[in-house]
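Lecture notes, part 5. Sequence design as translation. It can be helpful to think of inverse folding as translation between two languages: the language of shapes and the language of residues. The source text, in structure tokens, appears below.
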């Protein structure tokens, strides 16, 4: 299952945005209002929980400055990645798009597609708050 957020323009350079997103504690600012838990558990990992959903542990898997950051699930039960693609527009502006890729059975995919789509859209929209 592959989902993409809308592309969002942020008033920061690509390098500044990359630096903010590689610091996992900044993801707390991106979370939706219905967050039930957010906890940093290392310099490259955090756990978050949304109301009505199981807690998910995300770990930094790959960093390519200043254009790409890959976060992946730390558990094999729900294997997925969340990729932040950053494009430089100007010295003080960049665009970011999130891509969610996961391997789920059709029943699970059907159940989580809506909530995950809304979640990554919220994360992308909140990038302007960083």
């Amino acid at each position: 299952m592959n989902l993409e957020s809308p592309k969002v323009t942020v008033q920061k350079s690509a390098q500044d945005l990359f630096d903010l997103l590689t610091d996992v504690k900044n993801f707390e600012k991106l979370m939706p209002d219905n967050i039930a838990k957010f906890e940093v558990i290392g310099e490259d990992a955090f756990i978050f929980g949304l109301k009505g959903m199981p807690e998910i542990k995300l770990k930094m898997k790959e960093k390519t400055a200043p254009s790409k950051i890959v976060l992946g699930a730390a558990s094999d039960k729900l294997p997925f990645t969340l990729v932040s693609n950053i494009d430089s527009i100007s010295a003080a502006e960049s665009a970011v798009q999130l891509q969610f890729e996961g391997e789920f059975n059709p029943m699970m995919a059907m159940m989580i597609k809506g909530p995950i789509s809304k979640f990554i859209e919220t994360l992308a929209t909140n990038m302007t708050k960083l």
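The translated text above is only one of many valid answers, since several sequences can fold into similar shapes. The chain has one domain: 2-22+58-129.
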